[in-house]
Design brief:
The complex is a heterotrimer of chains A (about 400), B (about 325) and C (about 290). Helices cover about 40% and strands about 20% of the residues of chain A. Chain A is of the alpha/beta class. Chain B starts with 6 loop residues before the first helix and ends in an 8-residue tail after the last helix. At the A-B interface, helix 1, strand 2, helix 3, helix 4 and helix 7 of A face helix 1, helix 2, strand 2, helix 13 and helix 14 of B.
Chain lengths: ~400, ~325, ~290
């Protein structure tokens, strides 16, 4: 029986493995990506999936890439787990034999996934990961349309340097995961550059049960501005906790969170006056292929999904457009080989183009050096661009009235 | 299978091992990767099975040793530049040491208490890893650039999996194993008959911790990048538990079967249907426990016991 | 001042902990069931309140009877038709079973409602008052009193009502209870129902002061476990002692160390407690 079992198991294993290999249609260009559709970043992953879907549908409606190759995207769920992400990249490359890869969501997952992509020499452009460490590895095949985490938040701190009366002190808190921890480092740097004194700095575990006491420490230092390294959940909790402990800084800024509609929907009036870092707003004077202007993209997205995109989705689609443009300019065909992908990689390092998302030009380390940070504020239940001044839709509302006076 | 001579089982095992060992020379990449991962989990589940499957003690804190293993070897590699074998061995020994310190008092606790005690330690050490940023880089994660080749990991994990399974087989058929099973049946009776229950448990616990530490340390540098929540993750322990359960706790082969089947299913289905997959696993667990509560352990092992009697002239 | 405020926060937090942990203690005390699906009961109670708020614009406080009733029904049915089957088996069977239930509930919820974080914000969310400079949020205070009330009522129920005495008798000696004519299976089902109901109630409060999503359960199960071990497994009033201890120590160590270290401290404390005093601070916990 043991023999039967063991040797019987083997062919089953092999059969299952071979069964799941897939062949490729001739006139299709296949892309693969691993996204967190479940787990800590499940929400973010879903939004990126929507972004890629919109790009795929829009391009296919025009005939496809180069006017003839229909886009097909294989999406796997990495469960917000970096190790799984890397493994899925291997699966996409070796088993599914995709032509090209698309970037995922979340600095940790993308860190691992891009390492696998680099090993296999597949270019990868991500629009939803910005940890500085992603660019410190000497990789040639990794690109990002977002600015680095530490630079992303620069815009919002510059805003505070320009309001009247100018704040003197800031407190910085953030969750202890790569993106947000780096955002906090970015806050620190930008504060120093702007002559703002950092009176409190604390990173907390993502599994922290109670935020009240943690924020109490920040409150006790009486900062003018609170800067938070956050994703959506953390942003919601910090906002609610601040109200509960009656913490009234003159302004609060989040590195991420308020730009997702669920933040305003969930918090209603309490979301008012909150600032957030951003990289893109629909009112910016950007214009490019496939989607037209920033406002056009915004409207198209809303029509397709019933909600507005936030800047990560814009950055993601921007990256896809760059990849597409590079592919088309090289005149490549589906069934890419190693040499083709290497040419693509070199082309990506040269490319310098304007899209609805803004100017995209990758530096030697793969980061987008042409893209300035932006900042927004919730005003009257909507997000408005308040920085940079040239593109601002409104002036920042500062200071924020105390909770009890609202 | 009660006789001590390895006999047919070992020969078959060796044949399979040789086949598996030379396989990567012919096939490539993803399949090697899949099998590497399977071997890794056979090793982990095998350790959990050895400790908990036989004694009936449920441990929810096993991930503490993958965590300790990953960080000890990661730190030695990155900060001190020691060669990999030294780091891995150190990781295993660190895990063993902690297991002895932790096991001594906690193995006196029964049931739920042992489970939560080890888990509490895992969470505590996870937080220490998060906060001690000068050593561990905290939540930002530790990057380990030194790495063997994929085939190397394949062979090392194959070897370790084989070692754990072999060890389980060996223990099952010798005095130590009888002690374990006696504890499972009735601990007090076992003590009265002269089994030093505490030492039996402690030795097993320390041994399995050693291997888990080694596996953890190798996996950390195979992946090249990890954070405290990845390596001290309770879901690692949960996976070890499910794999052992699936294969039928308390038998030599249960981790092999459990790990192989579950990892393949997870790979095939999980990537696209992870939630459905987990619901199904949950339902299966509920149904099996409801209708075969003893049976998950008893029925499956009975099936194996019955059919592992050597048949005539079959090879 | 910071100290006093942190202390107050800790105490209020302790009340919440007690509320969602007492059900856990009850289940263990009476049936020896370690409910690994406990966090999912909190999650479901929270979602009941959330959906009633979103769809029917029902104020969270008015949704309480619904989450109580809904979770009672769930708990009752789970015990009656599923968990009862392993009542005579060794405890490991119930851990595995409730673990399977945890997987099913959490993932079905995830499939149904996606991972989107949601929260309930009313006009009075976050409202607070201050006493000698210490700020006390209304909702947390109310939750604290409800926790004390619930635990007290549970304790009273167990000791001074027929049903309660039947539950106690069953907990102490099942065979004897059977001989005395008590329908043990029914008692178990009702007990799990009560435990689940209280836990669902806690969930309804939780959604008002933080965000919720289907995967939120496991950390709560873990915290409940910690609270109950500290206070004594199976000893109902211990839930309050354990809750307060956990809340206060967590809060104070956040102030004096950092929030990260406070979690390490909390878990080390739990670990030490299990080694040196598994019966909990009160010494009244059930030690197997």
């Amino acid at each position: 029986m043991k023999k039967r079992l063991k040797t019987g198991l083997f062919p089953i294993v092999l059969a299952l493995i071979f069964m799941t290999g897939s062949a490729q249609a001739a006139e299709e260009l296949t892309f693969g990506t691993a996204l967190p559709l479940t787990g800590l970043f499940g929400k973010g992953g879903e939004l990126v999936r929507d972004a890629y879907t919109l790009w795929m549908e829009t391009v296919n409606a025009k005939g496809g890439i180069s006017g003839k190759y229909k886009i097909k995207i294989i999406i796997y769920d990495d469960q917000s787990n970096p190790q799984v992400s890397a493994k899925l990249i291997e699966k996409l490359v070796i088993q599914d034999k995709v032509d090209l890869l698309l970037g995922g969501y979340g600095s940790s997952q993308v860190m691992a996934a891009s390492a696998a992509a680099e090993r296999h020499k597949y270019p990868m452009i991500s629009g939803a990961a910005s940890s500085n460490k992603l660019f410190d590895r000497g990789f040639k095949y990794y690109f990002a349309t977002l600015g680095k985490a530490t630079d992303e938040v620069k815009g919002i701190v510059d805003v505070f340097a320009s309001v009247v009366p100018k704040p003197k002190t800031v407190a910085i808190v953030g969750s202890n995961i790569p993106f947000t921890a780096l955002a906090c480092e970015g806050y620190k740097r930008a504060a120093k550059q702007n002559g703002l004194e950092v009176v409190h700095f604390e990173l907390f575990p993502i599994s922290l049960q109670d935020y009240n006491t943690m924020l109490l420490k920040a409150k006790a230092k009486n900062p003018d501005v609170l800067l938070v390294g956050s994703h959506l959940g953390v942003a919601m909790r910090v906002t609610k906790a601040m109200k509960e402990i009656d913490f009234n800084p003159k302004a609060v800024a989040f590195s991420y969170g308020p730009t997702i509609p669920a933040y305003i929907d969930g918090l209603k009036g309490d979301a008012e006056y909150m600032f957030a870092a951003s990289e893109w707003t629909p009112n910016l004077p950007y214009n490019g292929p496939i989607f037209g202007s920033a406002a056009d993209f915004n409207a198209t997205y809303k029509k397709r999904f019933g909600r507005f995109p936030d800047y990560l989705q814009a950055a993601t689609v921007g990256g896809a457009i760059v990849l597409q443009t590079a592919f088309e300019e090289l005149g490549l065909k589906p069934g890419l080989g190693q040499a083709d992908r290497e040419r693509l990689m070199k082309k990506l390092h040269e490319i310098d183009m304007m899209t609805f998302y803004g100017q995209i030009h990758f530096g030697e380390d793969g980061a987008n050096v042409a893209h300035p940070p932006v900042a927004v504020q919730v005003q009257d239940g909507k997000l408005v661009n308040i920085f940079p001044a040239e593109a601002a839709e409104a002036k920042p509302r500062y200071p924020m009235p105390a909770w009890k006076k609202r | 299978m009660n006789d001590r001579r390895p006999g047919r089982g070992l020969i078959i095992g060796l044949i399979v091992a040789v086949v598996l060992a030379i396989m990567p020379l012919f096939t490539m990449g993803y399949y090697v990767n899949l099998l590497t991962v399977i071997f890794y989990w056979i090793g982990l589940a095998g350790c959990w099975n050895l400790m908990c499957g036989y004694t009936g003690y449920i441990d929810f804190g096993s991930a503490v040793y993958t965590g300790v293993g990953s960080y000890v070897s990661g730190i030695l590699l990155v900060r001190l530049g020691f060669p990999l074998p030294v780091c891995t061995l150190a990781a295993g020994l660190a895990a063993l040491l902690i297991a002895v310190i932790v096991g001594w008092p906690t193995l006196r606790l029964r049931g739920a208490y042992f489970a939560i005690a080890t888990f509490a330690l895992a969470e505590a050490l996870k937080q220490v890893a998060e906060e001690w940023t000068s050593m561990t880089e905290g939540g930002i994660g530790l990057t380990v650039t030194y790495r063997l080749s994929d085939i190397d990991y394949y062979w090392v994990y194959l070897g370790l999996a084989g070692l754990v399974v072999g060890l389980t087989w060996w223990i099952e058929h010798h005095k130590h194993g009888y002690g374990l099973k006696a504890i499972n049946e009735d601990e007090e009776a076992a003590a009265q008959v002269g089994v030093n229950t505490h030492m039996v448990k402690l030795k097993t616990y320390a041994l399995t911790a050693f291997f888990i530490g080694i596996l953890g340390s190798l996996e950390a540098n195979r992946l090249g990048y990890f954070k405290p929540e990845d390596v001290f993750d309770i879901h690692i322990t949960i996976k070890m538990v499910i794999m052992s359960l699936f294969g039928g706790m308390g038998t030599v082969l249960s981790p092999v079967i459990g790990a192989s089947i579950l990892q393949i299913i997870e790979d095939v289905l999980g990537a696209e249907f992870i939630n459905y997959y987990l619901v199904i696993i949950g339902v299966i667990i509920v149904v099996v426990i409801m209708f075969l509560p003893r049976g998950l352990v008893g029925a499956l092992s009975k099936i194996f016991a019955r059919s592992s009697r050597p048949k005539q002239g079959v090879i | 001042m910071l100290f006093l405020q942190a202390l107050t926060n800790g105490i209020l937090l302790g009340g919440i902990y007690a509320l969602y942990s007492s059900g856990f203690s009850l289940m263990f005390g009476v049936m020896g069931v370690v409910n690994i699906a406990h966090g999912e009961m909190i999650m479901l109670g929270a979602f009941i309140t959330y959906w009633l708020f979103e769809i029917a614009k029902l104020d969270p406080f008015l949704s309480l009877p619904f989450s109580l009733a809904g979770l009672f029904a769930l708990g009752y049915l789970l015990q009656r038709f599923i968990i009862n089957r392993v009542a005579d088996e060794p405890p490991i069977a119930s851990y595995i079973l409730t673990f399977g239930i945890h997987l099913v509930l959490a993932n079905i919820a995830l499939l149904a409602w996606t991972a989107d974080p949601r929260t309930v914000t009313t006009t009075y969310s976050g409202a607070n008052f201050s006493v000698i400079g210490i700020i006390i949020p209304y909702i947390k205070l109310v939750t604290f009193f409800i926790a004390v009330g619930v635990v007290g009522s549970l304790y009273w129920l167990l000791n001074h009502s027929r049903m309660g005495r039947a539950i106690q008798a069953t907990a102490q000696d099942r065979e004897m209870a059977r001989l005395m004519g008590i329908n043990v299976r029914q008692i178990y089902a009702v007990t799990l129902g009560i435990g689940a109901a209280i836990t669902g109630l806690a969930g309804s409060f939780v959604v008002t002061f933080r965000h919720i999503e289907p995967g939120m359960g496991l950390p709560y199960t873990i915290t409940a476990f910690c609270v109950v071990v500290l206070g004594g497994m199976g000893y109902i009033p211990g839930a309050i002692i354990g809750g307060l201890t956990l809340g206060v120590i967590g809060s104070l160590s956040t102030i004096f160390l950092t929030s990260g270290w406070s979690m390490a401290v909390t878990f080390f404390l739990l670990f030490m407690m299990l080694i040196f005093r598994p019966a909990g601070i009160t010494g009244k916990g059930i030690v197997e």
